[in-house]
Amino acid sequence: MGSDVGRSQNTTETATKATEKDIEFKSEKSLGDSGFNPQKFFEKRICTIKDVSLFTGYSIGTLYNLTSQDLIPHRKKRGRLFFVPTEILNWIDEGDI
After folding, report:
1. Global confidence as pTM
2. CATH class of residue range 38-94
3. How does pLDDT run across 32-59, given as a tens digit for each residue?
4. For position 47, what pLDDT does the model report?
5. What is the C-alpha separation between 50 and 13, in angstroms, rounded?
6. What are φ and ψ of residue 92, in 5° steps?
7. What number of other Cβ atoms are within 10 A of residue 84's Cβ?
8. Going by C-beta distance under 8 Å and a sequence separation of 6 or more, which residues neighbour residue 84?
9. Distance of alpha carbon 39 from its chain centroid, rounded?
């Protein structure tokens, strides 16, 4: 019976370690999958809505709402939406929406 308790404890410890490793891996993977690099954001002259979403943390839907209300600096050309990175940074620095 004593050996069963030891096995149970080892199994629990192993499961806990595996879970911790999975969490670390998932968080590293999620950062890598986004492909977002703040330095590259400012190297571009023009950014897409996806770039701005990754930079600001706003969802794409929220950004569309902000652009439709002219609350965020943007450009439209032939039905496409563009953003200038420095204007986005200035908009953030200005404060509230």
Report:
1. 0.57
2. mainly alpha
3. 455 667 677 767 789 999 999 999 999 9
4. 92
5. 41
6. -65, -45
7. 16
8. 45, 46, 47, 73, 75
9. 15
